Amino acid sequence: MSYNSRLSDYIQRRGFLLRVGLITGGIFLNGCYKRLKAKSYDIPGKLSGPNEKAGHLLRDKISFPKPLEHSKVKILIIGSGISGLSAGRWLKQSGETDFEILELEAHKGGNAHSGKNKDAAYPLGAHYVTVANNEDEVLMDFFKEINVITHMEKGLPYYNEFYLTFDPEERLLINGEWQEGLVPEFGVPELEKTQIKRFLAEVEELRLKKGADGKFVFNVPVSESSSDKSYLKLDLMSFKDYLDKKGFTSKYLLWYLNYACKDDYGRKISDVSAWAGLHYFASRRGLAANAERNAVLTWPQGNGWLMEQLADPLDKYIRTSSMCYQLGYTDNGKVLALVYDVNTQQNRTIEAEKVILCAPQYVNNRLLRGIKRPGVDYKELQYAPWLVANIKVSALSGGRGMGLCWDNVAYDTPSVGYVNSGQQRLNTAEDGHTLTYYLPLCDFEPAVARLAAYSRSYEQWLDIIMPELEYIHPGLTKVITNIDLWVWGHGMISPSVDLIWGDNLQQARKAIDQKIFFAHSDLSGISIFEEAFHQGIRAAKEVLKNNG
Ligand SMILES: Cc1cc2nc3c(=O)[nH]c(=O)nc-3n(C[C@H](O)[C@H](O)[C@H](O)COP(=O)(O)OP(=O)(O)OC[C@H]3O[C@@H](n4cnc5c(N)ncnc54)[C@H](O)[C@@H]3O)c2cc1C
Q1: How large is the ipTM?
Q2: Same structural domain for residues 504 and 363?
Q3: Which atom of ligand 1 is nearest the CA belonging to 79?
Q4: Measured between alpha carbons, how far is residue 227 from residues 211, 214, 224, 276, 500 in Å?
Q5: If you ran DSSP here, which 8-state letter would residue 273 be given?
Q6: Exposure letters 269-303 (e unless 16+ CB within 10 A, then b)
Q7: Banded pLDDT at 6 (limits 50, 70, 90)
Q8: Which part of the chain is the Amine oxidase domain (predicted)?
Q9: Residue 245, domain extent
Q10: Ligand 1 in reach of 340 Cβ (< 6 A)
């Protein structure tokens, strides 16, 4: 029985009320909102996410206490995600030390944040990068600086063996068996295999294609891609329409492409542009002396490790629990940031010559109340919500076929699978495993899915994820000792039709009055480490160019 038919049986059993509850976490009955009672799983754990209180403070127009302190700094960076840290690193390495980085959370790193249990660290968001495209010298320099690239051999980077994903890398549960690799093969009819091969051959060709301007059609960062109009038009149709036009109908292929879009964008093929869908497959050309093309780099705490490499040298510049809630100008033309200390609940002001806003645009919309940003339509920017579950198990049942890998995906299930966060651990003393399970909440429009996600209790989340986990590993419930749930309400920017190459993002990247600059991965339209890293550098360079 497939996962989906089992799930529908399950849903029928839980009845109509719970079905609505799966969507909203509660329902309106006689005008009253009632939380739905979930099936009780006796599993200890907790539900967390980015600082909700700070989010409310930003959203609701509450009055903040009178500022008690006033300070001055030359450059103020707002946000210590990868983009903010990358901007800080660039400033510091360029000799600029008069800057400060504000972060509203008690921790640094934004979506690259990680957690830990008594045994080990695990990712709570971003968990891997691929080896750099060889022409991306700036990223390669960073990788050399932090010993991810140890040396060059015959002109190719030699990657640190401890950070290249340890084998075995990927497996897919399909037609009752774990097969190696994620491209569907086991039990797939020949006709469908032919379509899969055709698609892979087409993207392979696109991978090496250059536009009329001599640039690769698809590149990382996105800004290095060709702006040849004959390819940019791919941004004006959905990936699904593109695949329909090309006659790709195989259910296995379409599942695989949906999986890929969910994995990188938190959305389905119908919700992202064809340019974005193809970018996933055709933008990577990284060659290494000691690894396969496009090999994966990862750490037990995921990209939390990369984040620490950026953050540690900047420690004295970073102020955590410091939320900027409004930007304005002083009478003498400086930028004035109003900052709330989430811990002490005190308010202060910071006067800066220049600000680099490394928060997502939906936050910037609130900070810039009263400051015009011509041509920027915030409503057009959608952010995909995610649930990440770190599941501690004392043992893991085998199943048929390939054994446990770093990345473990099940065909035709709601999630994009789980990674074995202990894969890169040298110390094998961990009792059991910690599985980091990723569920993109993409069955509804992001705003609806987000609202529902925020309203769910820990128990209600278990009601959603446990049937899938039990399907993947029958009997798993009994061996789970703890679950750490994390909800990302605005996890990733959605590269919808006409976003990446449209006017909106182009305008959003523009500085205001050469005083307020912008850097965040959402400005690329694709939320990955490399984009955040390059956005930070671009903005830092703009600031330095305008340094008065
Ligand atoms: C579930 C999930 C899985 C992911 N997996 C991967 C992956 O495997 N590989 C990958 O490359 N990418 C992954 N990503 C994408 C990830 O978002 C990017 O790689 C990158 O970390 C984004 O960095 P950023 O700086 O652009 O944004 P953010 O991480 O959003 O950083 C913005 C920062 O600004 C802070 N901030 C916001 N408002 C304020 C304010 N008013 N005052 C002060 N501070 C503020 C926030 O708290 C945050 O720290 C994943 C994302 C999610 C949600």
Answers
A1: 0.99
A2: yes
A3: 34
A4: 7, 10, 9, 14, 11
A5: B
A6: bebbbbbbbbbbbbbbbbbbeebeeebbbbbbbbb
A7: low
A8: 82-544
A9: 128-175+182-296
A10: no
